[in-house]
Amino acid sequence: MTTLATGSDTLTRDALTVLQPGFVGTTAPDWLLRRIGEGLSSVGLFGRNVVAPDQLAALTARLRAEREDVLVAIDEEGGDVTRLEVREGSSFPGNYALGSVDDVELTRAVARELGRRLAECGIDLNWAPSADVNSNADNPVIGVRSFGADPDLVARHTVAYVDGLQAVGVAACTKHFPGHGDTSVDSHDAMPRIDVDLATLHARELAPFRAAIAAGSKAVMSAHILLPALDPERPATLSPRILTGLLRRELGFEGLIVTDGMEMQAIASTYGIERGSVLAIAAGADAICVGGGLADEDTVLRLRDALVEAVRTGELPEERLADAAARVRALAAWTQAHRARGAVSGPGAASQEGTAPGTEVGLVAARRALRVTSGERPFEPLTAAPYVASFTPVANFAVGDETPWGIAAELQRLLPGTTTGSYGVEASADAVLAAAGERRVVAVVRDAHRHPWMAGTLDALLAARPDTVVVEMGLNESSPRGALHIATHGAARVCGRAAAEVIAGARGL
Q1: In this structure, how many other beta carbons lie within 10 angstroms of the beta carbon of residue 52?
Q2: Is 221:127 a contact under the CB 8 Å cutoff?
Q3: What is the rounded distance in angstroms from the CA atom of residue 471 to the CA atom of residue 216?
């Protein structure tokens, strides 16, 4: 580990200011508090840092005791990607569910209530919403995190989401610029590439970002993707053409440009996080997000020193680093002003069962997002405890595998005695039938169209037991099948509850 920086000069403080690191634990470690005192201006929180609202509020208060204007960020999209409720599942449906309802006022209300909960816990920057147009149904990382495949729909709901968050003083960070929706590779694992022409990019990928910028999104997050029509050599996060030329100059964005996580393999395995961070700031980024995987003091010091050394050698202009740091401080001032005005206690901020079980606005949205298709005969709600077979694909890094999903817990509440089994790529219909016995089967799938093993097992199960109920909790791309087919448009806990209500007859079809 190098120790070029002393921790006191302006250059070093600017280098610390542009970092948004994470840490391990549910209380702030001493090293983090010390670096905040030296100039670190932002901290990123993840599921590992959250246990309960009171704990989270105490954690953010401790950070601000060290520095009043520290930016506290989190990746809280709602739906499948939740940090506030990482162990229970979200009380808010995600973007795909909201886009399927296509009621911008509902989207705004969900984002406002989610933002209010964030603000109550002391969080003032949310790395959301996803403005990606999910034009590729086989996309392994976006999927239900997108409002949909239509650019105009995605644009209007992105604006509503930004409005809802920022109305309660939480800065939105619209992502993943210039659009991650048409990729077949997860940038957590490798470098995705989008080979379309400029006209397509402007009409499809960029439309929601233009709308978000016009709506005043305080931040935009860059994507680690290669778009040869814009820059054939460097991914967006490291491209002056894309961040400075397109985002700043052409689209007129004046807010904070945040990178996606620099430890993601699209950057780390190609450039390394130190070199990547220098190139990102030089390209026009203002804040370096790191901490989803690398969450220690050594990472902070390595990045700090890499930036300082790049300025000293002339690779990174000092004025570019100073400008980036100034943009971080400007956003911190905006959020601090909102806290001082008590934005979260204004009209409409009264509790609507936000992240607590039974959320009204979230549950209303989840119920409205259901698409229910009966089989050849009218469906009779279940009155006896069923067997729930959950077909579980490997979770992508953004979603994580620690957040529960499905409908078994909600069906158990409505139909005591419900049991469940989880099935992976080696699943067989015979194994499901043996476990179910005489009980009715509820098959829960997620992106069945993307997983041949899942679709094949489901076909065999339906051939043997046509009365099986099918619940699709991913993209609703396959044709409805089963005695009852329910598309929830996401796997949030409230989506599971809404589906369970229909299966058990707690709500009509």
Answers
A1: 12
A2: yes
A3: 38
Q: pLDDT tens, 135-176? A: 998 888 899 999 999 999 999 999 999 999 999 999 999 999
Q: Measured between alpha carbons, how far is 210 from 409 in angstroms, rounded to an integer?
A: 41
Positions marked active-site: 188, 260
Residue owning tokens 């650019």: 151
pLDDT of residue 183: 85
Secondary structure string (H, E, C) spanning 296-357 = CHHHHHHHHHHHHHHHHHCCCCHHHHHHHHHHHHHHHHHHHHHHHHCHHHCCCCCCCCCCCC
Query: What Å distances lie between residue 69 and 17, 40, 42, 209, CA to CA?
Result: 11, 10, 9, 28
Say what the pTM is: 0.93
**What is the rounded average pLDDT for all residues in the chain?**
91
Give residue-wise pLDDT tens across range 182-210: 887 777 777 889 999 999 999 999 999 99
Q: And the tokens for 215?
A: 């709506």
CA distances from 31 to 43, 246, 305 (A): 12, 38, 16
**Using CA atoms, how far apart are residues 411 and 250, in angstroms rounded to an integer?**
51
Pick from 483, 492, 425: nearest CA to 454: 425
Q: Exposed, middle or buried: residue 88 (CB in 10 Å: 0-12, 13-18, 19+)?
A: middle
What the block records as the tokens of 375 is 């089989």
pLDDT bucket at 354, cuts 50 / 70 / 90: very low
d(CA 459, CA 9): 66
> How would you label 286-302 residue by residue, b for 16+ Cβ within 10 Å and e otherwise?
bbbbbbbbbbbbebbbb
277 burial (CB, 10 Å; 0-12 / 13-18 / 19+) is buried
